[in-house]
Amino acid sequence: MNNNSTNKKRRSVTGKGVGALVLVCLIVVLGVLIGKNINAVAPDIGPGKTPDGKPGSDISVSVTPDVQGGETDNGEQSGGITLPEIILPTRQPLPEFTPYAVESTQPGKYIGATAIYKNGETLASIADYVSDQTIDFGLGEDYSDFPGVLTFRGNNFRDGGSYGYAELRDEEFGTYWNAPTGALTSSDGYTWTGNGWTGQPLIAQWPKEVRQHMNMYDWAKEKDTLTEVIYASMDGYVYFYELTSGSKTRDALNLGYTFKGAGALDPRGYPVLYVGSGYNSARGGSHAFIISLLDCSILYEFGQYDNFALRAWHMFDSSALVDAETDTLIYPGESGILYLLRLNTNYDESAGTLSMEPEVVKWRYSAARSYGWLGFEASAAVWRGHLFLPDNGGNLICLDLNTLEVVWAQDILDDSNATPMIELENGHPYLYVSTSFHYGWRGTNTAEIPIWKIDAETGEIVWKHSYSCYTVKDVSGGVQGSPAMGKHDLEDLVFFPVSRYPTPAAGWLVALNKETGEQVWNVETQVYSWSSPTAFYTKDGKGYLIYCTSGGYMYLLDGLTGEMLDFMNLGSNVEASPAIFENTVVVGTRNNGIWGVNMK
Q1: β partners of residue 465
Q2: What is the pLDDT of residue 88?
Q3: Measuring CA to CA, which residue among 542, 532, 530, 597 is closest to residue 568?
Q4: What's the pLDDT tens digit per position in 549-597?
């Protein structure tokens, strides 16, 4: 492991800081003398350095007032501070959302005929479709209250990828674990290794009661608190590790198919894994699995050689979502089919039993653009009853999940692998998205790669910021990773990885102003990135980024400035996207296994 902590800029203790400490101490003494309560904190004078040059500790002074008062000799309560009545905020109703097309986003410009399959037959008309229940997603932060990272980028807004808060004192990488992965040769002779794009791990902190019914090792069942990393890999296995130590929690599950995408866990905390393969196998055609994590048995399979598809490419790189209220799985496929499965889940936590009897609805589309491919590699973002999804043919689609009608469509030029991200501004939803440069579609050397902010109500472009990227056949340039949303002290920024820019081998991570689209900062790396940057925060709102590249490096960055705080050589190409649980980041590589790294 390589660290550059000696290059960090640290502030030393100054005379002003000492003076402030003295002043605070005098105030505390004075407060005690006059019987007042004081809550004083010294100014942030930052970490200093010890004589050997290593980062020192933070210095602060804090006095907690006795707000309860005491008791008199006869047991009666004495006087203290009378606190004001605490009134919890009333939860506001969700903003109404009724999207519509304008002239430039009429669906007919880009989308052709659509069809629906329900109850074993293709409906004669889209208008004949009636949803059994109303799908209505809320805020991303309300997708689940289960502790963990449960789907690609965390939720239906796709604005996460991290859980909880980190506590960083030294702003550097610390201890780590590394677990090996293998290889799988497909039926056509191609060998897949390690973890690829998008390849984000899933993380779940299972309750002890649930673990008693899982096929975990005894030590994992009995541990008071256990956070499990669940990682579907391209070697055909799903791996299970304890988050902080890397110890195996149970035997790996050998499904025998290449898994490129992230998969998803059930947001209700049910022990269920939804995962689709990204390539055909010697065992059969690519398809999606629903796995019980009680015993790692297969509950259901779908999508293999589906004759409802217009494109015979039955791969699943997307990461699913589950609407908890209607028990519905939402899973896009590269064949051009969107699968909606009413799961009919029956889970008894106390008995440790789980079953599903899915009812399947399928939606498919055709596209007006002749050179484009059908299908979806990116993951869907959802707000209220509407899904937003870019396709392989350069179309960004808004689909009503309850009528399965296309509301609007926007031209995004090229095969898009970036998952769109939703943010509400004063209750109004906007999307952030970009595209790739597929060799031969718009040229063979360079092409414009816009980053867009799009009005989710109409599909209209609010702003765009473009980069002229290079490409290579079968290893595209442009934006291949997905954006990261700035929150807390990063709330004005959105972050995108731009590959094969400004040279064919290099890459930029850019921070753009959400309001204007102007570039605020960039970090250039010698080797480009297909990985998605992941933002995480301390309790006081300070934001950081984890950023990985195809050169095998993982960087810890100050999110506000882009300053590199530390880096680590993981020894192999990182196409996968990291997930973070509190202080631990987990990511897989193509040829050097899975890494769990503690940040300190």
Answers
A1: 451
A2: 56
A3: 597
A4: 999 999 999 999 999 999 999 999 999 999 999 999 999 999 999 999 9
* DSSP helix/strand/coil, 170: coil
Q: How far is CA 368 from the centre of its chain?
A: 31
Instruction: Report the pLDDT value the prediction gives residue 92, as an integer from 0 to 100.
Output: 82
To 5 degrees, how large is the angle CA 176–CA 527–CA 396?
100
Q: Are residues 80 and 116 in the same domain?
A: no
Specify the CATH number for the domain of residue 444: 2.130.10.10
**Whether residue 120 sits in one domain with residue 83:** no
Residue 162 in 3-state DSSP? strand
CA angle, corner 342, sides to 339 and 346, nearest 5?
135
93 within some domain: no
- Token pair 């229940």 in the structure block, residue: 133
Q: What is the DSSP string of 285-345?
A: S--EEEEETTT--EEEEE-TT-TT-SS------S--EEETTTTEEEEE-TTSEEEEEE---
| Residues in Cβ contact with 370 at an 8 Å cutoff, skipping those fewer than 6 apart | none
Query: Are 484 and 529 in the same domain?
Result: yes
Q: Residue 94 falls within a domain, yes or no?
A: no
Do 149 and 80 fall within a single domain? no
Domain carrying residue 50 = 1-88
Residues of the chain with pLDDT under 50: 1-83
